[in-house]
Fold:
Amino acid sequence: MPFVTTEDGAKIHYRDTGGDGPAVLLMHGFFQDTEMWAAQEASLAPDYRVVTIDARGHGHTEDPAEPFDNWRLAWDAWAVVDHLGLDRLVVGGLLQGGWIGMRMALLQPARVRGLILIGTRADAYDDAESVGFEMIIMNQWILGDVPLEPIATPIAVQMIGGTREQRRYWLDKWNASDRRRLEQAGRCLIDRESIVDLVKDITAPALLMHGVQDQIHSRRQTEELAAQLGGPIRVETIEGLGAAHSVPFTHPEVTDPIIRDWLANLPAR
Structure:
């Protein structure tokens, strides 16, 4: 199982399909891990080299359990990219993965060929959102001492969508996990700052996608991000029953042809 060790001692787990194709780095949403990209690893390789990363607090990554922010997660991702000897690549992800990807582009713009941003935004949570997430994510899910299933089941409907079997896959992983391991990741999620004033400097092409039934991220928020970014934009709404927040996981048959078409039309690397 491959890891990259950072300067502060975190061991960042990654998966790499390998090959000589153009590199695509994909980063998961909150509560998820590299497994959410299994379909994309299969559908994009071998034409593309697909790299996926477990963020701190998630999957197989090990970290010092100290506070961090999304800029730190962006540097973690760059550490993996540098370890693999990649120069330029496409970066992207779902929600939290999109926050990291945009920060990667701000940190090293010349190395980012394009962005795939799914159900994500550049602004911070407003007061009502912060209070809600503090209660549900921090106090009940992460720090709570009651069974997780009743809390996680309705969240899975919104966060995953798809079929009952697809939601069950993540529910089983969540039930088997150490909830308190997510404490610093939860703080990073809720307390993140706005980068609305910065993303205009991201001039790389961007593909923005969101599920038509997404209750976490709206079409309006996707359109706002499209207007805030500084480069060429393509916006796609993913249709279908259960097309909610995690559409690359639940509806790869819809998302992946769009991603391949967009990748094929990027400027030469």
